[in-house]
Amino acid sequence: MTKKIAVSLPDDVAERLAQEPNVSAFVAESVRQRMAGERTRRTLRQVGFRLAEDRLAEAGRALDEAQAKITPELRARAASLLSESSRGRLTVRD
Length: 94
Known about the structure:
mainly alpha; single chain; extended; 4 helices
């Protein structure tokens, strides 16, 4: 079942969504990812982990920086290595 809703968004977010061929699917997946993160943090708190929001934000920035360094060439090389390893043909090189 689906429900149609209207939302107001900042210009930068609206511009980003305008690039998507299926905005509803993009938003639904984004919200689901957020919900999964909330469930994970709730579960971690329930078992005794204390997560500071500023530390989570810092970790998020570090992850964004690391992901920004992944070039198309590096991504292709990683895919090639994964394919080779799954076929048992991986040769370790420096």
